[in-house]
């Protein structure tokens, strides 16, 4: 009922024949992070920013805003996440123009460059990997390498 009324949506796991150790459980997200804050009983933005769920709520916000952008442009929305039994995880994988674009979402201002190492798991698949990104609280756009960017949350 909540999915049909566009209160929640599921992000399905990405897998193909070459990535056999993937976890198959979908992740649940809310379209409205204000509703999430209300349900968690966070009464102020300061409590939300410092609360135990602040990273999860930021991830929910980013995933839902990217999904809304696709829907508002009437474009097909090919979004997944990746997690395998070896604890390698990618918060979001976008398929666009025949390439996979991995995204990590972190509440940090200075995320570690090591976060993009998990992106390499997609190289084993049949679809080529394109530019990846860490979406974070950094105020300006920057790059880790030619293939991996650091994107401020405000740019999404």
Jot down its keywords.
156 residues; alpha/beta; two-stranded antiparallel ribbon
Low-confidence segments, given as residue ranges, are none
Q: Can you summarize the main beta sheet?
A: 6 strands, mixed
Per DSSP E runs of 2 or more residues, the count of β-strands stands at 8
Cα shape:
globular
Assembly classification: single chain
Gap from first CA to last CA:
29 Å
* Helicity range: 10-25%
Please give the radius of gyration in angstroms: 16 Å
Question: Helix-strand pattern, N to C?
Answer: EEHHHEEEEEE
Helix segment tally: 3
Strand order of the largest sheet: 3-4-5-6-8-7
Beta fraction: 25-35%
Structural class, by secondary structure, is alpha/beta
What's the mean pLDDT score? 90
Could you characterize the architecture of this molecule?
- The protein has 156 residues and is of the alpha/beta class.
- Helices cover 21% and strands 27% of the residues.
- The strands form two sheets. The chain has a six-stranded mixed beta sheet, covered by helices on one side. It has a two-stranded antiparallel sheet with strand order 1-2.
């Amino acid at each position: 009922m909540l999915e049909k009324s566009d209160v929640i949506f599921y992000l399905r796991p990405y897998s193909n024949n070459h990535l056999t150790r993937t976890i198959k459980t979908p992740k649940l997200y809310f379209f409205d992070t204000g509703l999430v804050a209300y349900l968690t009983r966070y009464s102020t933005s300061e409590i939300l920013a410092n609360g135990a769920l602040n990273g999860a709520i930021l991830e929910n916000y980013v995933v839902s805003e990217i999904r809304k952008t696709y829907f508002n442009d009437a474009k097909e929305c090919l979004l997944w996440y990746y997690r395998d039994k070896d604890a390698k995880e990618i918060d979001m994988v976008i398929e666009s123009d025949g390439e996979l674009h991995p995204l990590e979402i972190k509440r940090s201002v200075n995320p570690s460059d090591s976060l993009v190492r998990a992106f390499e798991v997609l190289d084993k698949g049949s679809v080529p990997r394109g530019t990846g990104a860490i979406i974070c609280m950094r105020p300006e756009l920057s790059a880790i390498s030619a293939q991996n960017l650091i994107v401020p949350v405000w740019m999404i």
